[in-house]
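Pipeline run #58 for the internal structure catalog. This entry was flagged by the ingest filter as a single-chain record with no existing model, so it goes straight to prediction. Upstream metadata was stripped on purpose; only the residue string is passed forward. Reviewer on rotation: M.T. Logging verbosity set to normal.
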Amino acid sequence: MHSMQYTDISIKTSQFLLRLTGTWMNESNTKESRRRFAMSYTILLHVYAMYINLTDVYYTWGDLNHWCYAMTNVLCISLALFKTIAIRIRCTVLNDIIILARQNFWHFKYNHEERMLLKKCREFCNLWTISICCIAQATWAFYIIVPIYENIGRNKSDRTHPVKMWIDLPLSETPYYELIFALQSLTLQQIGATYVCHDNFLCVMNMHVIYQFRVLQRKLSNLWKDFGEQTNSIDFTENCYIALKECIKQHQLLIEFCEKLKFVYMLPILSDVVAFSILMCLHTYEILLADVSILTRFISIFHIAGNFTYIIFFTYVCHGLMEESTNIGMATYSVWWEVLPMTESGRKLRKDMRIMIMKSLQPCYLSAGGFFPVTLQTSTALISSTLSYFTLMRESSMRNSKE
């Protein structure tokens, strides 16, 4: 291993967010105690947020405009909490994923062509991480800005919080108002970090696997680049077979990595797929039909931007994973293996190539709860469902207003 550990913005940010929510792997007893504290802190704040938002839903049941706003909060909190618990249950496999990535992906032992591929991967991951974190921070900022703006010109006894608390206490008076406002701000920040961290890390890992498949394809193509310069075809066949065995080991490692990734994230992916259309429908209603302030609409706008960006990028990288893992078979077959002599190494090479091609016929993929693989068609189906739900909701709202 290289003395220095490879890292970039996307990896550092993913590690920071996972540590902040208590999901990153433990490396020592001291860090394990910090992780447990972070996990307990995260769950406690999510339970608190779930309580005040469900209370808000209960007391505003007849107000559809505010009810939609409160329900989007409940769904986001539920998603973040569910994904955290589901991933924590499978933390051992998640730790294996991180270790495999450190040992086999995040190092400096690449040639020039492979470093160029890794540079493209790094740029893609950095752009994704910065974009999704900026959207999350903008959403959090508007959650804070809305009550501050609405409190301008109001009496101290009539001040509002980011989320209304239905408790018979003087929460709008100093110092209770400032304490509750600070607590809700910290809660919103932690929920935002939890909501983003798992999806961000999954997309970053997925993109790294895609480029590792491309690196493997390049290695398979380069096995035969010196064929015309070789005078001894028997020695050349032996060298090719040795190099092919290294490619087979890397292929097996990538397949194992993808299986672990699918095992850990199948339930969080399923929760995203199930809740995406409902969330987008409610946010669209808040933007287009609800009688709310413009600043409140911005909260829904950033929610939609974040969810839409995630589902498009995620389905894109999942589709890319299937394509690049399948292309291994084409890269294996599209070489000069037929001109090699039928020595013992030549026969073994042809046999191992057939097995490798057969392995690649079954592409690596990420699934939603094991029910179906996630592809680009998944995003179109979810967007279509969103439009259908919104149409039904709009017609129902118009019918109720006429009555």
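catalog note: The radius of gyration is 26 Å.
catalog note: Residues 337 and 350 are 7 Å apart (CA to CA).
status: ready for reviewer M.T.
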